[in-house]
Design brief:
The longest helix has 27 residues. It is elongated and about 130 Å long. The protein starts with a helix and ends with a strand. The chain is of the alpha+beta class and 335 residues long. It has five helices and 19 strands. Helix 2 runs antiparallel to helix 3.
């Protein structure tokens, strides 16, 4: 027997052992387990009761505490600023000189004109004691001419000057000495702090159209402390754009003592009452549906639901007044 024939049984045994070991490394086959399906909970629609109550449409914003008497001051001619005698926070009195442009020799010319006027007045007094009617008349004309010269120089100096238009406090100054100043550009603002109001800026036309003089408002003078106020006037403020305007709504607190709690420049929360109604039929805004101009709700009628057209009145971000289509106690489905 050859060596090869002797090894064949041994090799066959080894091969069978390897195959058996390889099969044991493979994962065991398992039967697929069908998962048990859990039924979802039944959907629950959010419902609301139609109720009666008070509904208020408001515009909310911030108001700046500002003086009722506030004046923008400017020069009526161009020039270089030579004198600036105030700074923000200074108290000023009516007629006080606050700023002045360079006037060159105007003040010197004014003094000379005043001397000429005084001299001509003395000569007129002397002529009247013994002069002829012609001499008297000629001297009267000289006095009138000299008086006009004085007035001319005084007016030219006043054009180059800014004086306080009333008692108050300098709110801001927008120029410096030596600066070239353009005519009618605001140089400073003087305000009377003794009388105050609140100013609300409104930019949207649809909002300003809801506000009128005498309208009620509420002002938060301190945290959660709202005091009544009234719209005193509405003014326009230019924005520099030819297609848009900013409107300023002026509010006056009904009690002067309430204004004492606010300082100039403070910001206060404001609620402008557009319209309000007591005992109104109300649903949440989330229950009102709109499509292609149609307004309707889904009314819960037992287990069924049906669509009902409604007519609405006052609308706020959270509530809607129902004028027609529903009655108190109805149940509507939210969206």
């Amino acid at each position: 027997m050859t060596l090869l024939n002797m090894l064949r049984p041994t090799m066959l045994v080894l091969l069978i052992a390897l195959v058996t070991a390889g099969c044991s490394l493979l994962p065991q086959e398992r039967a697929d387990v069908i998962p048990t399906l859990i039924e979802p909970p039944p959907s629950r629609a959010v419902t609301y009761d139609v109720q009666r109550g008070r509904i208020v449409e408001e515009l909310r914003g911030l108001a700046r505490v500002a003086p009722t008497l506030e004046t923008n001051l400017y020069f009526k001619q161009n020039g270089r600023l030579a004198l600036l005698d105030v700074e923000p926070g200074d108290d000023v009195r009516e007629g006080e000189l606050l700023a002045q442009l360079e006037t060159g020799t105007l003040e010197h010319q004014l003094e000379l004109a005043r001397i000429d006027l005084e001299a001509s007045e003395l000569r007129l007094a002397a002529v009247r004691t013994g002069g002829t009617p012609v001499d008297i008349r000629l001297q009267e004309l000289t006095v009138a001419k000299n008086r006009l010269e004085v007035e001319n120089f005084e007016n030219r100096i006043e054009l180059a000057s800014i004086r306080a238009p009333h008692d108050g406090v300098v709110q801001s100054v927008r120029v410096q000495v030596g600066q070239l100043v353009q005519e009618y550009n605001t140089v400073m603002i003087v305000a009377d702090p003794r009388s105050r109001e609140l100013q609300v800026e409104i930019r949207r036309n649809e909002d300003i159209n809801k506000i009128s003089r005498g309208q009620k408002a509420l002002v938060e003078v301190s945290r959660d402390d709202w005091r009544p106020a009234t719209v005193s006037q509405i003014t326009e403020r230019e924005t520099g754009s030819s297609i848009s305007l900013t409107y300023i709504v002026h509010l006056e607190l009904e009690e002067e003592s309430d204004a004492a709690e606010l300082r100039l420049g403070d910001l206060a929360s404001v609620r402008l009452v557009v319209q309000e109604k007591e005992n109104a039929l109300i649903i949440p805004r989330a229950a009102l549906r709109e499509f292609m101009g149609r307004r309707y709700v889904r009314l819960l009628d037992g287990e069924a639901r049906r669509e009902v057209d409604v007519e609405v009145g006052i609308t706020t971000p959270t509530e809607v007044e129902i004028l027609k289509g529903l009655t108190e106690g109805d149940v509507v489905v939210g969206q």
